[in-house]
């Protein structure tokens, strides 16, 4: 009879340990979501720094230097977004959710690529536009 009681306690203990492991995996998924969101905020901050630098030092001599520094920050945003997407997708593929809804990987990719495409368009506009117009005025 003592053996049956010990076996029952072990089964209950194993079930509780498995529940705790499942909850830990769910917490890890939520932490990954927050980390990805943090990297996207960092990418937006790099874009803002680039735009701000260009606006603040627009009359900088030589003029291409302000554009180059702004481009560096905006390009850094692209690196942040793409690297965060790759790391998040690899991590989400290793984990499985239990009690929460795991983010959809196409949505993660869409967010990162949309930010990257917007930043790339901003870089192109920074170098093509001249005082708000594409062509120079006479």
Q: How many distinct helices?
A: 3
Question: Major beta sheet, specifics?
Answer: none
Broad shape: rod-shaped
Percent range for β-strand residues: under 5%
Describe the structure.
The protein is mainly alpha-helical. The protein has one domain (2-128). Helices cover 80% and strands 0% of the residues. It starts with a helix and ends in a 10-residue tail after the last helix. The mean pLDDT is 82.
Furnish the topology, listing elements before pairings:
Layout: H1 2-56, H2 63-94, H3 105-128
Short description:
With 138 residues, the protein is mainly α. It is built from 3 helices and no strands. It starts with a helix and ends in a 10-residue tail after the last helix.
Provide keyphrases for this structure.
single chain, 138 residues, rod-shaped
């Amino acid at each position: 009879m003592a053996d049956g009681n010990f076996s029952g306690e072990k089964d209950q203990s194993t079930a509780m340990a498995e529940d705790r492991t499942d909850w830990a995996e769910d917490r890890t998924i939520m932490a990954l979501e927050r980390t990805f969101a943090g990297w996207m905020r960092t990418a937006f901050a790099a874009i803002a720094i680039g735009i701000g630098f260009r606006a603040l030092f627009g009359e900088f001599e030589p003029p291409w230097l302000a554009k180059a520094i702004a481009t560096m920050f905006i390009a850094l945003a692209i690196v942040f977004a793409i690297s965060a997407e790759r790391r998040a997708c690899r991590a989400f593929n290793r984990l499985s959710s239990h009690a929460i809804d795991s983010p959809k990987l196409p949505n993660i990719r869409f967010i990162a690529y949309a930010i990257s495409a917007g930043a790339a368009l901003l870089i192109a506009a920074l170098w093509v536009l001249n005082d708000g117009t594409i062509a120079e005025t006479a």
